[in-house]
Amino acid sequence: MYLQVIEGNYFTSADRESIYAGEDALICIDQGGKIARIVKKEASDFSEVRQAALIQSKLHQLSNDERLLPGFIDLHVHAPQWPQAGLALDKPLNDWLNTYTFPLEAKYKDVEFATPVYADLMQNLLANGTTTAMIFGTVYNDSNLELAKQAVSSGLRAFIGKVAMDNPDETPEYYRDFSAEQALEDTEIFIEKILAMQANSETTIFPVITPRFVPSCTDELLAGLGNLARRYDLPVQSHCSESDWEDQYVLDRFHKRDAEVLDYFGLLTDKSVMAHGTQLSNSDLDLFKNRQTAVAHCPISNAYFGNAVFPTNVALANGNKVGMGSDISGGYSPSIYKNMQQSVMASQMLTDGVDRRQAENVRGAGNSRISMKTAFYLATRGGAEALHIPTGAIEVGYQADFQVVKLHSDYLTNDRDDEFEQLMYQTERADICQVIVGGKQVYQR
Ligand code: GUN
Ligand code: FE
């Protein structure tokens, strides 16, 4: 018998350019929380399956103005920065880090400060339709473990890292790892504890190797983290080529590009997710492709700190893996809807088809124009591929990670493509009625 059968209309990404619109289907979820079967209205046993679910009180009928969507995957969240979402975004990145972000993150030495913030963030991610997130913690393991516990108890699928940063030249004394050795030891302790939690958790919890970014780390730390990633075969998250400042800093220190340095230390793997990448060169994108490293496209944040547009089309056409990230709090919103909207809007600013990265002193990149369907692909399938987990699609074999959303208007169109477009632009947090992870309800409005 099924755990649950959801009846109604749904949308799922088919590929980078198109969606599939399911009509009046039965989405059958098995006891393990995966989609076992999708029964179309025309199927000969449709009534039989529906009736059986109904009798056993397992049928969940969506109303006429509700649609089922895959839950979103947010590839880049800084959990400790949640209290400052929307603050100080007029400052350049380095200034923002030193005057706002590092002092805030330092407060998480106290777990009592962390607990309510992390609980609130989990609820806000779920309430906005996010069912999986890749998350930076702080340098402090006590609050990182609290973050992991909150993620597990909320039901969110979470990939979490202890932030590693030990470079005394680029990090303040009050907020850094004491030494590379200490940072590596703490990272390993964190990994072991999360792996132990993983065994007892129904949802996905994964430890992630997390060098903050190259400027924050000594060579010794970068090399050690690369070794840990290989030894434990773990995902890696960091920032790469987010801004001119970062690129220039890395060039000055290593006489190599940011991506090349991360690769040199073994930090670009098929399980790596690098945030931003707005300044990645064509050869950097090729390197990412060869390593199967994904980019977390953070369109809201990029407007503030990257001052550039990530060339999504160039990257996708090149065969790069790309997903979507909120970059809380470089991006002010935990809503992946808002990030999808910004990704489309920003891409429209550069419609001349010129690859501007070829030109000197020109910001952003042309040939970037994307459709909402591509943005939806990034927010669902793209993110899931980066994390190697079967979520982000309403298809047999995938996790039953869903959001139920209400249409704003049903009087304008009967065209499912138009309906999809409107849904992506108009859905607000208040329209997200229910969020499901692994077949279980984790949020209800
Ligand atoms: N680079 C290093 N740390 C950070 C951070 O916290 N946010 C962003 N956007 N970029 C960073
Ligand atoms: Fe970030």
Automatic annotation (TrEMBL):
* Note describing how the cofactor binds: Binds 1 zinc ion per subunit.
Name the Gene3D superfamilies for this protein: Metal-dependent hydrolases, Urease, subunit C, domain 1
Q: Is Chaperone given among the entry's keywords? A: no
- Keywords assigned by UniProt? Hydrolase, Metal-binding, Zinc
Q: In which pathway does it act?
A: Purine metabolism; guanine degradation; xanthine from guanine: step 1/1
Q: Which domain of life is it from?
A: Bacteria
Q: Which residues form the Amidohydrolase-related domain?
A: 68-442
Q: Name one GO biological process term.
A: guanine catabolic process
- What's its catalytic activity? guanine + H2O + H(+) = xanthine + NH4(+)
Tell me its family: Belongs to the metallo-dependent hydrolases superfamily. ATZ/TRZ family.
**Protein name as catalogued:** Guanine deaminase
Give the organism, scientific name. Lentilactobacillus kosonis
